[in-house]
Amino acid sequence: MKDNFSTQSAEYAQFRPTYPKEVFDFILSFVKEKDIAWDCATGNGQVARELAKHFKQVFGTDISENQLKNAARLDNISYLKEPSEHSSFNDSTFDLITVAQAIHWFQFDAFYAEVKRTLKPGGIFAALGYTVMQIDEKVDVVITKLYDDILGKYWDEERRYIEQQYKTIPFPFEEMTAPSFFIKASWNFEQLIGYLNTWSSLQHYKKANGSNPLELIHEDLKKAWGADLQKAVQFPILLRIGR
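Given the sequence above, the corresponding structure tokens read:
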């Protein structure tokens, strides 16, 4: 798995959107027992924190020490620095395994072997993610310019799985059909800039060019935003779930 987020882990914890309760309610409706869950590539622990409300014990793993330093702390969450493809867990340990906005970075065969090894019989696996946010017509045009025209060649190849809405990732499980979900938030302009600064492609651009590409569109983005103090932001959610 690639580590594209250690350098901006504090910003990731502050500005990345959080999944709504309805998504977790849907996933949990398939989970028979709620003893132990594993959140792979847990990052700042936002999904682990939600799972901790329902499970006796939650494990969150990540290869980024910086991300784990910024992760949510609760008594029933244990964090480990290790790759999801090669964990230290025993066979048939987990009732639920989740991975949020990260499965596209994994070595699929090795990871799925680990999922199948560590899931209890009848256990549930869920891969979540989200695509580019939608705000309004004017702002979306500028964001698309940033995403495609300026940062296009700086996105990792694996980003295509997000663009293809996770439909093209291998999924060797008995799959359940998921309804459409959305992350909905209200942001000010500074929150939008904070979120854009967490994009992995933006970090690649900065490393290659020594400048922040947001400078190229900041004036247009501010003009498109207008006088609104806050705007409604919506992220379409990706969800593959199976047992």
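The radius of gyration is 18 Å. Try to locate this feature in the token string yourself.
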